[in-house]
Automatic annotation (TrEMBL):
InterPro entries: Coa1 (IPR014807), Coa1_fungi (IPR042432). It comes from the Eukaryota. GO terms for cellular component: mitochondrial inner membrane. One of its GO terms (biological process) is mitochondrial respiratory chain complex IV assembly. PANTHER family: CYTOCHROME C OXIDASE ASSEMBLY FACTOR 1. Signal peptide: none annotated. This is Cytochrome c oxidase assembly factor 1. It comes from Wickerhamomyces pijperi.
Length: 201
């Protein structure tokens, strides 16, 4: 308190504080007034660094993960389908070549003229189905023929078997078997014994 009185007397006349006002101050009030005048509370400096954009919430999409082996399996299935298709196409092409070979067309021609065929199967001898299938080996280059196919007539159906070979390309085929197997009773008719036709391939 004494120091404050001395300070008030040392100040210029315009800045002097009365003794009564100094004596009336309490220590807590003095400290409080000093804190209010001299201490500056920090402002919200951190706000200048905050983003003004709205905070985006994290989105979670629930879906299955891609299968890394899906494309491999798909290619495998495509390859299997391709091989199967090529195999079927090859069989169809080979069968078409057999149907249009001179041996099959000649055999069918003599079957239509055979009296035995007419007696067993009737007239209009032809392949048994719209998509006939010739089974067996038919190789004219090597001279080996061992085929069978189904035919039909107005009376019934049957299976034709033809087996022949030759020594070389300049020789004629030697026929070992040419017969009709009736589908009704399984009876075998030897067409080589039919005198109405002179079969040769």
């Amino acid at each position: 308190m004494f120091s404050l009185l001395r300070l008030s007397t040392a100040l210029p006349t315009g800045l002097r504080v009365s003794r009564s006002s100094i004596i009336g101050l309490k220590p807590l009030q003095t400290v409080t007034s000093l804190n209010r005048t001299n201490l500056i509370k920090p402002t919200n400096y951190g706000l200048r660094y905050q983003s003004t954009q709205p905070i985006k919430k994290q989105m979670v999409i629930e879906r299955e993960l891609p299968d890394p082996l899906k494309e491999v399996r798909s290619n495998r299935y495509k390859f299997i389908a391709f091989v199967t298709l090529m195999g079927i196409s090859s069989f169809l092409i080979f069968n078409y070549e057999k149907l249009n070979s001179p041996i099959v067309t000649t055999t069918l021609h003599f079957l239509r003229r055979s009296q035995t065929m007419k007696d067993v199967l009737g007239e209009k001898i032809d392949f048994a189905s719209a998509f006939p299938w010739v089974r067996g080996q038919l190789n004219q280059v090597q001279g080996k023929v061992n085929i069978e196919f189904h035919v039909k007539g107005t009376k019934g159906e049957g299976k034709i078997k033809l087996r022949a070979d030759r020594e070389d390309r300049l020789s004629d085929f030697l026929i070992h078997e040419w017969c009709l197997i009736d589908d009704k009773d399984g009876k075998v008719y030897d067409l080589l014994e039919d005198d109405t036709v002179d079969f040769a391939v």
